[in-house]
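Narrative of accomplishments. A recurring question from our advisory board has been how the design workflow behaves on a single, concrete structure rather than in aggregate. To address it, we present the structure tokens for one chain from the evaluation set, followed by the sequence designed for it. No filtering or post-editing was applied between the two.
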């Protein structure tokens, strides 16, 4: 690969500083601004993962200088329309790597290398190993500027610290101090009955009373004798910030028996699938962060220790004292107490249960689902039926009354005579439709699914829409590319028959490029061609003439 001229000057200028001498002894520098104010903290419960870093507020603006927190080499740069957006990874001599995400732009030496790679690969999205460039940044050097790229909900800096060897994320607040004297806030307690077949059903939501000094009480609650699980609806806040944060540490003790301990000090990206073992999935959809203190697979998560699955054994006519302690990283502490009183156990038929620890096969006319053992977090009751889609007349295969997240993907097979534009889609409980990656076979369609839900087939015959939005401040061209059904799969932008770098923001369906790109010819009419392809293979293109 050709090395840009600016990089040669950069390397020569820094050739005497290729080996950092005191990196291990350096204190960690704040990456943006003068102090840390959080909009998100480490280990927060997110939709599909545990938050692997901290989100540092930037005052609602972009373009603030982001500095290198310690001496180190730039080892990786990624650019993506989703996820971390524009991101940098810097490796330090103490065995850690710092990560900076959702960046607006890189410093020129990095930006030029990234552009050369994008043009060589003719692709906006890149994820590149940068070790060959030997780019060394000293602590305090500006490396980029804060932004709002990728799957960001507003301007901020996503910042991580990772163990370089294991690639596990480490809680950055183990290295930084923040001003915080607010203890976690407890909203309510969730209680679950666990049947002999392994189904965990929500029994009731119990309100708590504030008793002062960070203490809460939930009184005496009657529960059916047997196994009981506890969930805690809790959030945390820090001073000078309205953002809801996650709980750092939680412990549940039943009588004198410690059954559950959570500590968000480190996490592995391979354990993201455990998120719905720790949070109540249904409550999360209602914007409630309920930490489940029980589960069949929680012991696999780095930050959790539980005994007997965290389940509380309650006998008829007995009283079990439950005490839950919650803490943030500054050791601000809250405590909840309640008594569980055992009442007559419910009589439940164990037939018609899909077991979490066994291979299962779900069958409907024209539909088959293979669930290998361990696909479910807990057993569920079998509720299968076929409905008709009133708009298309096609079958909707109902695999569950509500969406059930899976620990491991299940295999869905639909038999029939389908065309290349037929795709499997999920009908969520809120009515929204999500097309899943569909494979066509001689027997029909198949897909790997993440939920037991409602599935049907849709024919996507409509090509993506492409709209020219004109010039933006006379410096950039903007287009809107949008697909109403299956979504944009690929796009390509050309100027005068040559590939041109267009950035893509799927949050607002925006495609844009700078008029300073080298393929534009000044003083002439330039032909700009945009092509977009959806996930069903439908293609559309738009050609516009632009004078630079």
């Amino acid at each position: 690969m050709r090395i840009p001229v600016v990089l040669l000057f950069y390397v020569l200028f820094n050739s005497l500083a290729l080996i950092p001498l005191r990196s291990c002894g350096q204190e960690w520098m704040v990456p943006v601004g003068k102090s840390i104010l959080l909009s998100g903290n480490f280990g927060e419960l997110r939709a599909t993962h545990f938050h692997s870093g901290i989100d540092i507020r930037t005052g609602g603006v972009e373009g603030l200088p982001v500095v290198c927190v310690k001496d180190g080499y730039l080892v990786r740069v990624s650019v993506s329309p989703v996820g971390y957006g524009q991101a940098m990874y810097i490796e330090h001599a103490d065995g850690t790597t710092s990560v900076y995400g959702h960046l607006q732009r890189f410093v020129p030496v990095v930006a030029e290398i990234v552009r050369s790679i994008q043009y060589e690969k003719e692709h906006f999205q890149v994820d590149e190993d940068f070790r060959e460039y030997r780019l060394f940044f000293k602590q305090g050097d500006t490396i980029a500027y804060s932004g709002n790229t990728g799957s960001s909900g507003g301007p901020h800096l996503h910042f991580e610290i990772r163990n370089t060897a294991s690639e596990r994320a480490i809680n950055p607040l183990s290295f930084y101090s923040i001003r915080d004297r607010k203890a976690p806030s407890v909203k309510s307690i969730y209680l679950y009955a666990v049947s002999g077949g392994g189904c965990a059903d929500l029994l009731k939501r119990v309100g708590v009373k504030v008793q002062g000094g960070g203490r809460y009480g939930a009184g005496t609650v009657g529960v059916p004798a047997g196994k009981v699980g506890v969930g805690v609806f809790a959030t945390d806040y820090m001073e000078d910030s309205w953002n809801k944060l996650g709980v750092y540490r939680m412990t549940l003790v039943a009588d004198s028996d410690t059954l559950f301990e959570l500590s968000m000090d480190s996490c592995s990206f391979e354990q993201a699938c455990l998120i719905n073992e720790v949070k109540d999935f249904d409550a999360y959809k209602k914007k409630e962060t309920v930490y489940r203190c029980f589960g069949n697979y929680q012991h696999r998560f780095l930050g959790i220790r539980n005994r007997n699955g965290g389940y509380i054994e309650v006998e008829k006519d007995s009283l079990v004292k439950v005490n839950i302690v919650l803490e943030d990283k500054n050791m601000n502490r809250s405590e909840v107490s309640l008594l569980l009183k055992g009442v007559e156990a419910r009589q439940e038929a164990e037939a018609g249960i899909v077991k979490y620890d066994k291979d299962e096969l779900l069958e409907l006319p024209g539909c088959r689902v293979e669930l290998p053992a361990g696909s479910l977090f807990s057993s569920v009751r079998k509720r299968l039926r076929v409905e008709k889609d009133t708009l298309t007349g096609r079958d909707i295969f109902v695999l569950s009354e509500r969406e059930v997240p899976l620990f491991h993907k299940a295999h869905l097979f639909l038999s029939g005579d389908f065309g290349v534009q037929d795709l499997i889609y999920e009908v969520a409980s809120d009515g929204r439709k999500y097309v899943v990656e569909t494979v066509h076979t001689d027997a029909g369609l198949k897909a790997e699914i993440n939920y037991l839900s409602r599935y049907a087939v849709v024919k996507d015959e409509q090509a993506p829409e492409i709209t020219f939005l004109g010039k933006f401040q006379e410096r950039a061209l903007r287009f809107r590319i949008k697909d109403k059904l299956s979504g944009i799969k690929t796009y390509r932008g050309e100027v005068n028959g040559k590939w041109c770098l267009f950035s893509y923001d799927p949050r607002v369906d925006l495609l844009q490029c700078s008029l300073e790109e080298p393929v534009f010819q000044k003083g002439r009419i330039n032909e700009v061609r945009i092509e977009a392809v959806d996930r069903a293979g439908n293609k559309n293109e738009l050609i516009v003439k632009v004078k630079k």
